[in-house]
Design brief:
The relative contact order is 0.31. The longest helix has 4 residues, at about 100-105. The strands form two sheets. Strands 2, 4, 5, 6, 9, 10 and 11 form a seven-stranded mixed β-sheet that branches. The protein has one helix and eleven strands, in the order βββββββββαββ. The chain is globular. It is mainly beta. A hairpin with a 4-residue loop joins strand 7 (about 65-70) and strand 8.
């Protein structure tokens, strides 16, 4: 199971750190990432960190502002979000699964999803 937390209301230019805590023994073997969905829009990929080597990937819209990291000892992945913009307002979901192109092409097929946490950025 995945538990997302850390969302809230922040002014443009501010920062938030989201956490995705996982239960289970095999967390360290999974890629873990974040997606977001704004009202009236489709879900979009934000960032993912692989299990092996910790390689990270980001959506172009968040590169340079967001940083994803993982602490396998705590079974937790973090999304540090800096310089937030009103366009970042969305419900943020974390997901976990083995590494595959599903992360970019078919995220609906990813095995594990958290419940979502609301991020609201005011202008």
């Amino acid at each position: 199971q995945l538990q997302a937390s850390g969302g809230g209301l922040v002014q443009a230019g501010g920062s938030l750190r989201l956490s995705c805590a996982a239960s289970g023994r095999f967390f360290s073997s999974y890629a873990v990432g974040w997606f977001r969905q704004a009202p009236g829009k489709e879900r979009e990929f934000v960032a993912v960190v692989r299990s092996t080597g910790g390689t990270t990937y980001y959506a172009d819209s968040v590169k340079g502002r967001f940083t994803i990291s993982r602490d396998n000892a705590k079974n937790t992945v973090y999304l540090q979000m800096n310089n937030l913009e009103p366009e970042d307002t969305a419900v943020y979901y974390c997901a976990a699964d083995s590494w595959s192109n599903h992360w970019f092409k078919r995220p609906g097929l990813l095995d594990y999803w958290g419940q979502g946490t609301q991020v609201t950025v005011s202008s």
